[in-house]
Amino acid sequence: MIFIADYAHFSCPRGRLISKTVLAAALLSAVPMAMGHIVLEQPRATSGSSYKAVLRVGHGCAGSPTQQIVVEIPPGVQGAKPMPKPGWVLGVTRAALAQPYQNHGRTLTDDVVRISWTARSEADQLPDAHFDEFVLQAQLPEQTGALYWPVRQECAQGRHDWVQVPAPGQQRRDLKEPAPLLELVPHMNAPTPQGTTTQAAPHVHRH
Ligand SMILES: [Cu+2]
Questions:
Q1: Which range marks the domain in which residue 78 is found?
Q2: The total number of structural domains that make up the chain
Q3: Buried/exposed 97-124: b ≥16 CB within 10 Å, e otherwise
Q4: How far apart (Å, rounded) are the C-alpha atoms in residues 24 and 6?
Q5: CA of 8 to the centre of ligand 1 (A)
């Protein structure tokens, strides 16, 4: 079901060029797909685990190259840390926590809430004809279910706000600019048929 939901990003004009059958076959054989919207490469993870979020940027804005990616860290996700990227300047924003938490005996009262990558120059921008990945790691909350990662994509001309979340009864694939979705599954969950479940270690310590 999760994979069906994740077909949402093929509903963009570019995605329509390929039949769903082909897409399904490609997905089942774990072929990486470089098209469509902005999605998390691993759309499923164990709650409470350490997660490597790979945001895949499939296209620019109506042909215009991407110059900035900004991701909002979802509430409850702790200690987010970006992976540096050659040609891109990192931005990390912290904010006070509504609910301070304990980590190794220390009380943390603020945490990372936003991470951005900004192209250093025009030559470093991501052309619409290419795709790229923007990576961060973080500790996931203990809850299960859908966790949305709003992303803003700024292009040389125009922008996309990948922030839409389906209303009750609405399909994610019907959204024009859906927020990247991570499905949190309970600890000890069996691997998915595709073997794409993230690391099984339920409690990864953060330092
Ligand atoms: Cu798209």
A1: 2-185
A2: 1
A3: eeeeeeeeeeeeeebbbbbbbbbeeeee
A4: 11
A5: 9
Residue 164, class by beta-carbon neighbours within 10 Å (0-12 exposed, 13-18 middle, 19+ buried)?
middle
**What are the pLDDT digits (tens) for 177-189?**
999 999 999 987 5
pLDDT tens per residue across span 143-169: 999 999 999 999 999 999 999 999 999
| CA atoms within a 13 Å half-sphere pointing along the CA-CB vector of 186 | 3
Distance CA 198, CA 52 (A): 9
For residue 63, report the distance from its CA to the centre of ligand 1, in Å: 11
Alpha carbon of 96 to ligand 1 centroid (Å): 34
Is residue 204 situated within a structural domain?
no
